[in-house]
Amino acid sequence: MRWQTGAMTLNVLNPAARIRVVRQGHEQQPVIVIDDMLAAPDSWRAAAARADYGRMGEYYPGVRAPVPPAAAGAMRDDLADVIGEVFGVAPPVLECFFSIVTTQPAALAPIQRLPHVDGLEPDRLAILIYLSGAEQGGTAFYRQRGTGFETVDVARFPAFDAALSAGVAEHGMPPAAYIAGDTPLYEQIAAYDAAPNRGLIYRSHALHCANIPAGVALPADPVSGRLSINSFLFDAGVR
User: Fold this and answer.
1) Could you identify which of 28, 115, 119, 212 might form a hypothetical disulfide with 142, taking C-beta atoms 3.0 to 4.6 angstroms apart as the criterion?
2) CATH code for position 38
3) Does residue 222 sit within a domain?
4) What confidence tier does 57 reach under pLDDT thresholds 50, 70, 90?
5) Per-residue model confidence (pLDDT) at position 239
6) What is the secondary structure of 63-79 as a DSSP string?
7) Would you state the pLDDT for residue 104?
8) Residue 101 neighbours by CB under 8 Å, 6+ apart
9) Does the structure show a pLDDT above 80 at 11?
């Protein structure tokens, strides 16, 4: 699949990309890991450098800029076969952003210090592509100790929320830092290092968070910052 950017036409997915499927944790949820994913990662970085960033929502600890819908759609179309084979669905793109983590640990809101889900629907998927290096940190997945949940859907949410409240009451809120490894409330079940042009595809209701090393600078600069492409796939017209 190809898309237009200015005077350029780009192939989105690299024909030589290396794809593997990891099944993680007790629930054996699949994560698709794709190395050398984009055919022209430098062109995507150049597009990110030209984008206009701002805060979007109260949860993401950084700034974002929208990716052109044609580019996001072409990426999803190139991945539709493998996504459908692994997850049983290949939803359309709901939204897609260039994203840069910028919030310093001391400024994190309480909700940003915990693993999270992007939605409770099992057929909502996330595509994360790292455009920066391994030193900026990757992504980790978690199991809630109080329930054993590694994914949270509508049916599980009341028990998940009750266990979170009980855990915070017993242990207190986590310190102002990005979560790293096991905690009193959560057990890390998998971690994927960032690598330039590496992609992860996973169900959005899997508990996860950025795995950012302590002391890493987090500039709001698409050239030197923790830059990624984040796509969210979901058919909002189907319930």
Assistant:
1) 115
2) 2.60.120
3) yes
4) confident
5) 54
6) EEEEPPHHHHHHHHHHH
7) 93
8) 61, 62, 136, 210, 212, 218, 225, 226
9) no
pLDDT tens digits, 75-95? 999 999 999 999 999 999 999
Number of domains present in the structure of the chain: 1
pLDDT band at 6 (very low <50, low <70, confident <90, very high): very low
Residue 121 lies in a domain: yes
For residues 202 and 117, give the distance between their C-alpha atoms in angstroms, rounded to a whole number: 11
Structure tokens at 16: 């030589």
Q: Which residues of 65-99 are buried (b: 16+ CB within 10 A; e: fewer)?
A: bebeeebbbbbbbbbeebbeebbebbbebbebbbb
d(CA 93, CA 87): 15
Domain span at residue 150? 16-233
**Is 134 contained in some domain?**
yes
CA angle 217, 177, 182 (to 5 degrees): 120
Q: Give me the helices (H) in 54-175, please.
A: 69-87, 157-171
Phi-psi region of 42 (alpha: psi -120 to 50; beta: other; left: phi over 0): alpha
pLDDT at 2 over 80: no
The residue count of the chain comes to 239
The pLDDT of 36-45, averaged and rounded, is 94
| Mean pLDDT, rounded, of the chain | 92
Residue 192 lies in a domain: yes
